[in-house]
From TrEMBL:
<comment type="pathway">
    <text>Lipid metabolism; fatty acid biosynthesis.</text>
</comment>
<comment type="function">
    <text>Catalyzes the NAD-dependent reduction of a carbon-carbon double bond in an enoyl moiety that is covalently linked to an acyl carrier protein (ACP). Catalyzes the last reduction step in the de novo synthesis cycle of fatty acids. Involved in the elongation cycle of fatty acids which are used in lipid metabolism. Required for normal plant growth.</text>
</comment>
<keyword id="KW-0934">Plastid</keyword>
<dbReference type="Pfam" id="PF13561">
    <property type="entry name" value="adh_short_C2"/>
</dbReference>
<keyword id="KW-0809">Transit peptide</keyword>
<dbReference type="GO" id="GO:0009507">
    <property type="term" value="C:chloroplast"/>
</dbReference>
<dbReference type="InterPro" id="IPR002347">
    <property type="entry name" value="SDR_fam"/>
</dbReference>
<keyword id="KW-0275">Fatty acid biosynthesis</keyword>
<keyword id="KW-0443">Lipid metabolism</keyword>
<keyword id="KW-0276">Fatty acid metabolism</keyword>
<comment type="similarity">
    <text>Belongs to the short-chain dehydrogenases/reductases (SDR) family. FabI subfamily.</text>
</comment>
<protein>
    <recommendedName>
        <fullName>Enoyl-[acyl-carrier-protein] reductase [NADH], chloroplastic</fullName>
        <ecNumber>1.3.1.9</ecNumber>
    </recommendedName>
</protein>
<dbReference type="InterPro" id="IPR036291">
    <property type="entry name" value="NAD(P)-bd_dom_sf"/>
</dbReference>
<keyword id="KW-0560">Oxidoreductase</keyword>
<keyword id="KW-0150">Chloroplast</keyword>
<dbReference type="InterPro" id="IPR014358">
    <property type="entry name" value="Enoyl-ACP_Rdtase_NADH"/>
</dbReference>
<dbReference type="GO" id="GO:0004318">
    <property type="term" value="F:enoyl-[acyl-carrier-protein] reductase (NADH) activity"/>
</dbReference>
Length: 392
């Protein structure tokens, strides 16, 4: 995955693993318009560590916290700060739990990076069967290049929690799963148990992200989908969000934000996105509205979903037609460019920030505008229309 710059946005940064001289230069809200400092990441990597391999660790020392605080104060008073213009996205002091991160190719990872770039502390929930490989890849530095934030520091993940979002508590877990060797090495991975563990470890969170989906029969047309496959898609991709929010709501600080990921197949026909997945996304979007009301009234939590365009993630590749969808979007969307995961990550950072304080219950499209089209303009039928096209 490339590490593109976050032009036009400002993020407050306080990465703990950057050398102090660089910290002085980079701390505080800065405009990120230039290139990421990719070249320096490997030097920095040796000065950093991944807190996820230290259970309950915060990944930084109290002395580094002190230095960040004083630098931030100094920056507030400096001329560099007054030179900054625009609106800051500052999530410093906020803690995010992102469910559905198991590699560096998906939306969950990109959202974690944007939230981290804005200063938030990152906790992730990783599907139990994918946990070992994810943790060992993190430990071995396989994701280090993808961990580079716009200030050149590396994203830290404070803790990785094993999670299987189709089970609410231990009573739900069938014997064959309990006995499965991919699950045997982990514990406390049902939704309720994960929420309890996060409460025990950190007390509360401010941002909850649901970036997971699973439809075992996704490649089958709806007419050929079994009841079991359909319900499994709904369970993993829709109810999992209801359950996550339900269990995390008591530890979500008032004013907090909850975000999920949806897809246009919920409301328009996308042949190939089968197995009940289109129905699962429709349920997710409807639930977003109802949950916005309930969580808003109960704990002043905002609930939104991002309808993202096509991305070559692991899950999307499993569906089998992702390249076609990316090409289709390039040919037909108002903006003829490939969508980057960072664009979705940045939108999540905005939604999680006070800048979005009046936005709740919405489906927000981040898809180069494809959702707005009524026709596919690459059809030969339109060949005589003078439609401007990107020549690249
Ligand atoms: N990639 C796209 O083109 C696209 C487009 C629109 C929306 N989305 C949505 O974005 C979200 C993230 O998907 P992605 O495409 O980035 O792929 P991804 O593979 O990065 O993420 C899906 C994650 O779900 C996890 N998962 C599956 N079942 C689980 C379970 N029972 N419990 C816990 N975790 C589980 C997987 O391990 C994986 O980490 C999904 O909701 C997806 O539908 C993706």
């Amino acid at each position: 995955m490339t590490t593109t710059s976050f032009s036009g946005l400002q993020f407050a940064m306080s990465r703990s693993c950057i050398p102090s001289s660089q910290k002085i230069a980079d701390a505080g809200a800065v405009v990120l318009g230039g290139k990421s400092k990719i070249g320096s990441w490997n030097k920095l990597a040796s000065a950093c560590h991944i807190a996820s391999v230290q259970p309950f660790g915060r990944g930084f020392t109290s002395s580094s916290i002190k230095s960040v605080k004083s630098v931030t104060k100094a920056m507030t008073e400096s001329s560099a700060q007054s030179a900054v213009s625009g609106l800051p996205i500052n999530l410093k002091g906020k803690r995010a739990f992102i469910a559905g991160v198991a590699d560096d190719n998906g939306y969950g990872w990109a959202i974690a990076k944007s939230l981290a770039a804005a200063g938030a502390e990152i906790l992730v929930g990783t599907w139990v069967p994918a946990l070992n490989i994810f943790e060992s890849s993190l430990r071995r530095g396989k994701f280090d290049e993808s961990r580079v934030l716009p200030d050149g520091s590396l994203m830290e993940i404070t803790k990785v929690y094993p999670l299987d979002a189709v089970f609410d508590n231990l009573d739900d877990v069938p014997e064959d799963i309990k006995a499965n060797k991919r699950y045997a090495g982990s514990s406390k991975w049902t939704v309720q148990e994960v929420a309890e563990s996060v409460k025990e470890d950190f007390g509360s969170i401010d941002i909850l992200v649901h970036s997971l989906a699973n439809g075992p029969e996704v490649t089958k047309p709806l007419l050929e989908t079994s009841r079991k496959g359909y319900l499994a898609a709904i369970s993993a991709s829709s109810y999992s969000y209801v359950s996550l929010l339900k269990h995390f709501l008591p530890i979500l600080n008032p004013g907090g934000s909850s975000i999920s990921l949806t897809y246009i197949a919920s409301e328009r026909i996308i042949p190939g996105y089968g197995g009940g997945m289109s129905s699962a996304k429709a349920a997710l979007e409807s639930d977003t509205r109802v949950l916005a009301f309930e969580a808003g009234r109960k704990r002043k939590i905002r609930v939104n979903t991002i309808s993202a365009g096509p991305l070559r993630s692991r899950a999307a590749k499993a569906i089998g037609f992702i390249d076609m969808m990316i090409d289709y979007s390039s040919a037909n969307a108002p903006l003829q460019k490939e969508l980057s995961a960072e664009e979705v990550g940045n939108t999540a950072a905005f939604l999680a920030s006070p800048l979005a304080s009046a936005i709740t219950g919405t489906v927000l499209y981040v898809d180069n505008g494809l959702n707005a089209m009524g026709v596919g303009v690459d059809s030969p039928i339109f060949k005589d229309l003078d439609i401007p096209k990107d020549q690249h």
